[in-house]
Amino acid sequence: MIYGIFVISLVCVPGVASAQEPEPLQQDAAPPPGAAQPQAASSRIFGVMPNYGTVEDAAGVQALSAAQKFHMAALYAFDPYVYPFVGVIAGIGRGEGEHGYVERYALAFADNTVSSFLTVAVLPSAFHQDPRYFQLGKGGAWRRAGYTVTRSVVARSDAGKTMFNVSEIGGNLLAAGVSNLYYPSSDRSVANTLTRWGAQVMWDTLSNELKEFWPDIRRKIRKV
C-alpha cells in the first residue's frame, strides 16, 4: 500500500479497525489447488508493521488472483494498526494549519485507503502485475538498497516477467487525482496533487527498504 526504524515503520504501517486482526493471506492450512502463497516468513515487521505482501523466496511462487489482490489491499487498508498510524499523521498535520484534526484524520485515512486499493488491487489486476515486494536478499547493502529503489518503477508481471510498475507510479498518481474529489478546494492545485503523489511513492519506497532488510534484522534479533 508508509510515513530511524520507528519512523519508517510508522510510515509504512498502512490500520486499528477492530480488536481482532484481519486474516493474513498466508495460511497454516494447505491452500486450495492453484492458490498463491506469499512467501513471507512473517506477516508483521517488529510485530507491528503489516508485511502481508513480501516474497522472500520467489522460486516457484504462484501468481495472485484478482480476488487475492483485493484481499491484500484490504489487509493493508484496514489492518488494526492503520488507525493509530493515521492518527499520528493527522497529528503531525499536512502543512495546512487551517484544517482541524478530525478533518486531517479523515483525509489521511482516505488517502491511505484509496492508495492501497489502487496500487495493490485495481491496477495490478487490470495490468496483470504482481503487487508484492520480491526481496533480493543477497549481495551488499548498497546493491540491495539500490535494487529496492528500482522496484518503485520496475514490477513483476503475473507471468513472472519484468515490466514498468504502472501500479505504483500510475496508481499513486491516480490516487492523488482522486483525492481532489474530497480535499478542500484550497488543496486541489496541480502542485499539491503532485506533492501527494511524490510523497506516497517515496513512503512506499522506504517501506520496501525496510521489507528488504527485515529478514536480516529478524535473524539478528533471534540470536540475541
Task: Lay out the secondary structure.
Elements: H1 5-12, E1 44-45, E2 49-50, E3 54-55, H2 66-78, H3 82-92, H4 101-126, E4 129-130, E5 133-134, H5 141-150, E6 154-157, E7 162-164, H6 166-178, H7 190-223
Parallel strand pairs: 3-5
Antiparallel strand pairs: 1-2, 4-6, 6-7
Helix pairs in contact: 1-7, 2-4, 3-4, 4-6, 5-7, 6-7
Explained architecture:
With 224 residues, the chain is mainly alpha-helical. It has one domain (5-223). It has helices spanning 5-12, 66-78, 82-92, 101-126, 141-150, 166-178, 190-223; strands spanning 44-45, 49-50, 54-55, 129-130, 133-134, 154-157, 162-164. It has a three-stranded antiparallel beta sheet.
Question: What's the pLDDT, averaged over the residues?
Answer: 81
Count all strands and give the number. 7
The N- and C-terminal alpha carbons lie at a distance of 31 Å
Briefly note the structural class of the backbone. Answer: mainly alpha
What is the overall shape? globular
Instruction: Give helix % range.
Output: 40-55%
- Helices, by number, come to 7
Portion in beta strands: 5-15%
Number of domains: 1
Low-confidence regions: 1-24, 26-41
Largest sheet: 3 strands, antiparallel
In short:
The chain has 224 residues and is mainly alpha-helical. 51% of the residues lie in helices and 8% in strands.
